[in-house]
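Handout, section B. The chain below has 603 residues.
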Amino acid sequence: MSLEKKLVTIVSVIIIATIGSLNIFSIHFIKLRYEEMLYQSMSSSSYLITYLLNSHLDTVVQFTDVLRSDSTIQRHLDIIHQDLDYHLESSYEKIYKVQQTCYQQYRKPYLTYSAIINPRFTTYTYGYGYEKLSTDMIEEINHAARKAKGAPVWFSRYVDNSYLFLARQIRKIEHMELYDMGTLAIAIDMDVLLDEITKESRDFQNIYWIFSQDDQIIYSSPKLERTVLPELRGISGKYGIISAEGHFYFALRGRLEGPDWEYFQLIPYDAMESYQKILVFAYLAVFLLGLILTIFLIHLSIRKLTAHIGVLCQKMASFHGDNTDIIQVPYDYSQRKDEIGLMHQYFDSMAQKVNTLITNDYKLNLEMKTMQLKSLEAQINPHFLYNTLDSINWRAKASGNEEISIMVEALGTLLRSSLSQKSSLVPLKEEMELVRRYLAIQKIRYEERLVYSFEINGAVPEKSGTDLAWNPCESPDSWMDGVLDSELAEVMLPPFSIQPFVENAIKYGLERFPDQCSVIIAVSREPDNTLYIMVKNDGSQFEANLLEKLEQSKQNAQGLGIGLLNINQRIKLLFGTEYGLTLYNKDGFAVAAIHIPITFEKG
């Protein structure tokens, strides 16, 4: 990517990130501020409405206090409680008259009716609406009232198809006997009550209400779906915006102190939500247009700057090899005092000095330098070999030949390690890196005939992604992630302790047999804080007691045998005689196991 494109990209990203973040913050702040103002406005109306609602509900409670404590009702309910049948008709008439008189005194449009329930009959007062209580309703109202033991209880079991009931137990007052004589139930039409409270102001007409207690709906405005309550429970603060049944609502949350109800005051928010979306889209459109124009102007400014740098690059490109002439440009940089002019002036001055040096020194000493260079090139040493392999690697990469690149890189790593290793102990991750490089070469050589896997504590590492069809050309490093990320990565062991066993596994498991060979490299941490490193292969078997025969010279130690003895002796010298090498056969695999203590100190 050219410098011009880089500068335009960097500046554009900075502008987009800075201004975009600022705009998002501004929009969010304005939205929160609007919601805060809306909350302040709603809280004022909410306070007034809930105050009036509390007042009306207190009046209903006072009505129940007056009615259930009336002496006539007390006396006749007590007579019925005593089961005196001959007073039944007279008691009904007396109770009804007192009940109707009290009802007229406290008469309100929202007081639908009152009912006094006793074991013999139920008396009703006739109000603006009337619907007798069913047997099931009477039983549940009685149960709720008895459970409250005389305290007011709001019964919303039938709020969907009837009214909200205030139920209170009527108890014997005289002599504080307080036994149960009946139940007083007041039916309240909450729609009428809220309409009466809010009808004085147009601001209250579009406000919806939900009252609940113990996660049970006491009352919900008819226009609201009851499924809106779970959404309201998700509001963490005093207010918030919810979406329910395809509509948006702004909801205010509070508590009604009298009956201890939780309430939610809602207003439709669909229009405002649509307006906010239109405003955001319009704002984004203007922002994008301004951003495009700004980037275009920045691009023009940067292009003027980079054009002079491009001219300098042309000068530098032409000034190489045998060509030491400075190209002529249609611009005089000698009069410029900024950085661009200074760069051109410095280059022109340097080019002139180089020409002088070439004339005076370089050409005079060219033959001598050529001879020295040829002498140095003839000295082939490890560094020259490393550089050569590195050059082959880059050429292979440039030509897209991944296999040659992997083999050369792996060979260079193996050579460097073999010549530069000076420590008596190296980390496990370095040993495994050598094994990986070696296997990369062998995998390319044998292709599908060679399959291998890596295990840590009996499982393939999650990050390795290694399977038996692993291709080093596609993912040469992925299988080592399990070792590098494990706690065993820094465990110290003698160098070149694992690769010889992998080489032996491939040699005897593959080169002597035409079929496929599987090699498993397993690392296992034991409970006694020791480490087992096992190299397993199928297709070959170890001779019984091979290691003992090599140590006792009963079998000639040639090739691999010398390596086995060397590794075993180094482990015992470094860690003790209880550690070392074990060779055995198990489940069709030839297993070479190294047993060492877990230590993280370098030798």
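Note. The chain has 15 helices and 17 strands. Compare this with the example in section A.
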